[in-house]
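Morning F.,

Quick status update on the modeling queue. The single chain you submitted on Monday has been processed. Sequence for confirmation:
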Amino acid sequence: MTDPLIHALSELLERSVGIWRIDGTVSFDSTMPGQIRISSDGAELLVSRAPVAMPFRWVVTANGRRRTAASITGVLRIVRQSLVADYEPFSLTIAALPENRA
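Structure tokens below.
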């Protein structure tokens, strides 16, 4: 039986690929249980849980290069950056306002 979290992530990735308007497929890898395979325009990505000894939760292998992610948000960012060449993630800085000492 497939891990419920992997199954939910597969569904999220499938919907995300559609929302991002990427022509690709999301499926379970038949050779490695528990891995999600994403294929698009010659790109091959594998998403799986990280080994227990690693300080990360997820490993994304994109065209032979392994990248780690601490969260599902990180997985989505890596997948989108790997599939969309001109994608640039937003950067957000949160800081306190300076005090007005008039």
